[in-house]
Structure formats: structure tokens, C-alpha cells
Amino acid sequence: MGSSVATPVGRSDLRRLALEVRKLSKTTDQLFFPIVEFIELILPKIDPGFELEILTREEMGTKHGLTLPDKKCIRLREDVYIRACNNEGRDRLTLAHEVGHYFLHDSSSVQHARLQPGEEIKAFEDPEWQASAFAGELLVPAHLAKGLRPADIAYMCGVSNEAALMQYNKIPGNNRRISL
Ligand SMILES: [Zn+2]
Q1: C-alpha 4 – ligand 1 centre gap (Å)
Q2: Contacts made by residues 151-154, CB under 8 angstroms, sequence distance 24+
Q3: CA 173 – ligand 1 centroid, Å
Q4: pTM of this structure
Q5: How many CB atoms within 10 Å of residue 68?
Q6: What distance in angstroms lies between residue 29's CA and the mean position of ligand 1's atoms?
Q7: 133: which residues sit within 8 A by CB, 6+ positions away?
Q8: Measured in angstroms, how far is the CA atom of residue 128 from the centroid of ligand 1?
Q9: How confident is the model at residue 180 (pLDDT cuts 50, 70, 90)?
Q10: How far is the CA of 67 from the centre of ligand 1 (A)?
Q11: Which of 47, 102, 143, 174 has a Cα-to-Cα distance from 114 of 20 to 30 A?
Q12: What's the chain's average pLDDT?
């Protein structure tokens, strides 16, 4: 079986990277991260040549987003983009996930691997896990969200209840393992 394997990156590294991204956009002291504005206005300044492409459902099919770091491009399906503009938590997370791929994954950091039967990629080597973990850390800043209830995290950070609960359980010092 073939799979993509990325240079290993753990959650604490991803949390640090998310904080760096917040510093670049001067949002370290606010719970809500303006992900659409970041992609449209800040990312092109950080990385000249960056391009956001909004594509139709016909062009994207079932893919909500696609990142081509080597081409400095993030592609979003237009309905996903519009919902993210309307602060829909699930779609905001999709955008943050693509930003994670953009910063973390290019042809030098992701390789195609042949796995032995029964062998599984470790989470911290899985590019999809890395992008999703980064997205959660970016939209829910641990240093500000610590101690907040999941429902408050969802409301104040603009994420789904599911994502809020997931991040709640990852924040160091929180009472572990609240479930819905
Ligand atoms: Zn992905």
C-alpha cells in the first residue's frame, strides 16, 4: 500500500508554528482568528507570489480545498469559501487546514512511501494529521482558550462544537476528557 509520509512534526511544534502565524498577523491577543483575511491579505505579503484560487464545484468535485505549496497556491471550492466568509466553523477549519499544508508540506517534506502490510503511518508523520492539528491550534489559541468551556471556545473562536471539544482536550492544564 502506498501513502504520503511527512517529516515528523508533533503537536507542540504545530502549536508554536500557529503562534508564529498569529504573531505575523498581530492576532496573539484575540481568540478569533480571521482566517479568510489572513489568506487574502496577510499571506500574499508574507509570501509574494502566493495565490488563492476559488474554483467551482464542478472543478473541485468532492475536494473542499487543495494546496499546492510548490506552486504557492491554495485552491478552495467556492461554496466552502463563501461559508468561511460567513464564519461557518467547519469551513474556517478547512481553510486553516490548507494553510497548514501550505506552511508544512512541499515536495521536500512529503514523500510517497510504500508501507509494509499491517504497517501504519504514525500520526505525527501523516500530512493530513499535521494539517488538521495545526488548524485546530491556529483557530483555538491554547494560551487564551485555557480554562474556557468547549461551548465558549466554539462561540468565541468560531469553530464547530466538535473542534472546540477536541482542542479543549488538547490544551495543557485543562481537565481532561470532556465528551459531548
Ligand atoms: Zn489535507
Answers
A1: 11
A2: 153/31, 154/89
A3: 29
A4: 0.94
A5: 15
A6: 28
A7: 11, 14, 100
A8: 5
A9: low
A10: 8
A11: 102
A12: 94
